[in-house]
């Protein structure tokens, strides 16, 4: 049987990069410290270098889960207002989460960049329990709608390998 996964091409790369650049939220999937799967919605953005990131509170269960097991998955893409939600493109990122220390000089640059796309975060970005999490993507799965699926690598997304 022929694989339904198409070879990566320029159209797939462009669609995936568009989804990545336009996402302001994502579904984050983690494995909790008790070994159970958990999905939640998080704010989503890109670092100045283009690395996927989010801002999370240490009070959130998904923060503890990422600290215990950094293997995560993020789902980007929103269904349209009409029709079957499965006809709309979506991008799944498989990644490893890494918390960015507030003590690094880079933190201020990342925060300023993040606030340009998430201005409401100004209300809580300085709270002691909030941290940025950077996602090192190692694989991506793009579903462009029925019969259009690709597996992509970080370079297809314009990300470091």
Q: What is the count of β-strands?
A: 9
Main sheet: strands, sense, barrel: 9 strands, mixed
Rg, Å, rounded: 16 Å
Query: What overall geometry do the principal axes of the alpha carbons give?
Result: globular
Verbal overview:
Strands 1, 2, 3, 4, 5, 6, 7, 8 and 9 form a 9-stranded mixed sheet that branches. This protein is of the alpha+beta class. It has helices at residues 10-22, 61-68, 106-117, and strands at residues 5-6, 25-31, 37-43, 45-46, 52-57, 71-76, 90-100, 130-143, 149-152. The longest helix is centred in the first third of the chain and has 13 residues, at 10-22. The chain has one domain (11-79, 88-144): Pnp Oxidase, Chain A (Roll), CATH 2.30.110.
SSE blueprint and pairings:
Blueprint: E1 5-6, H1 10-22, E2 25-31, E3 37-43, E4 45-46, E5 52-57, H2 61-68, E6 71-76, E7 90-100, H3 106-117, E8 130-143, E9 149-152
Parallel strand pairs: 1-9
Antiparallel strand pairs: 2-3, 2-6, 4-5, 5-8, 6-7, 7-8, 8-9
Short overview:
This protein has helices spanning 10-22, 61-68, 106-117; strands spanning 5-6, 25-31, 37-43, 45-46, 52-57, 71-76, 90-100, 130-143, 149-152. The chain has 161 residues and is of the alpha+beta class.
